[in-house]
Amino acid sequence: MTEIIVVGSGTMGTGIAEVTAHAGFSTTLVDVDTAALQRGMERLLASLRRGVEKGKLSAEDEAAARSRIRFETTFDPSGADILIEAVPENIELKKQLLSSVGAKNEATLLATNTSSLSVTEIAAACVRPDRVIGLHFFNPAPVMQLVEVVRAEQTSAGNIERATELVKRLGKTSVVVRDVPGFATSRLGIILGMEAIRMLESGVASAADIDTAMELGYRHPMGPLKLTDLVGLDVRLAIAEHLTKELGPQFAPPPLLRRLVRAGKLGKKTGEGFYVWSGNDAQKKPTV
Ligand code: 3HC
Question: Does the N-terminal peptide bond of residue 140 adopt cis geometry, omega within 30 degrees of 0?
Answer without folding.
Answer: yes
